[in-house]
Amino acid sequence: MARELHITVDHGVCMGNGQCVLLAPEVFRHNDDRQSEVVDPAGAPEDVVLQAAGYCPTGAITVVDAETGEVLFPR
Question: Which domains are assigned to the chain?
Fold first, then answer.
């Protein structure tokens, strides 16, 4: 069973590069300011979410296990 993820995007850091949207469009989208936002944390498998977070050039994405609070990204 997949664990529930809590994903945040720091809009003070996000520059709208779109790598996360490209890699996981079911999870991320651009808002009206062309910054990424989370639409469905369960929209893609965990490995895809972590890959999308890792491709963020500014490190704006944080991924946490919602149940345990363990930070999955960044490590």
Answer: 5-73 (3.30.70.20)
